[in-house]
Design the sequence.
């Protein structure tokens, strides 16, 4: 067996702080899940952002603004009174996926930091943890964006046809699924880290076999 190399004291302290902080973030997200469930299923009103407006009107406060040729609203935030059960469930599901992403990523960071403190970061459990984090970010980001779009579509459908934009009239889009695709970049980056850990694990085993 090769000698296990443990990081020096300063590195161990820093990594321990990271591990503890990540664990606290994960616990905080669990609490946020509980609060989200209470809000989604018991609150009389829900605040829903991101409703895209087509043919939006010009804001009054910019009517006489110097240097502005044209202005219009592109999105609005709605406070929905007494939303239906479907809207509540979709609202909870989209928020749940976001918090689940945070929990899985924070858990992976905490575990990887702790394994590094012990001097053995290239272990199967660390590789699996980071790979699960990558999958959680990719799946949670994609389905979270989709569920938020469906939530907004359900709300717009409940407002009636007059709320939906036509070719010339102001109104909402019937279906509003938008994304910055930031989750795609983070998910792929975590996948690369998991692959590096897997390669490091194999190299570590090969090195130990030579000793």
Sequence:
């Amino acid at each position: 067996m090769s000698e296990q190399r443990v990081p020096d004291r300063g590195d161990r302290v820093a990594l321990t702080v990271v591990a503890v902080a990540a664990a606290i973030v994960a616990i905080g997200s669990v609490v946020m899940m509980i609060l989200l469930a209470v809000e989604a299923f018991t609150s009389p009103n829900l605040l829903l952002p991101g409703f895209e407006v087509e043919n939006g009107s010009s804001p009054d406060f910019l009517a006489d603004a110097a240097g502005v040729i044209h202005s219009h609203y592109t999105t609005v935030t709605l406070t929905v009174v007494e939303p239906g059960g479907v809207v509540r469930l979709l609202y909870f599901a989209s928020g749940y996926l976001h918090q689940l992403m945070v929990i899985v990523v924070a858990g992976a960071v905490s575990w990887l930091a702790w394994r590094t403190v012990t001097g053995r970061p290239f272990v199967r459990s660390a590789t699996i943890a980071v790979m699960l984090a990558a999958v959680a970010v990719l799946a949670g980001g994609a389905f979270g964006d989709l569920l938020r779009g469906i939530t907004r579509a359900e709300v717009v459908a409940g407002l009636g046809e007059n709320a939906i934009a036509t070719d010339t009239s102001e109104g909402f889009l019937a279906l509003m699924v938008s994304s910055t695709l930031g989750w795609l970049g983070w998910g792929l980056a975590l996948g690369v880290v998991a692959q590096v850990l897997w390669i490091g694990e194999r190299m570590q085993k090969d090195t130990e076999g030579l000793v």
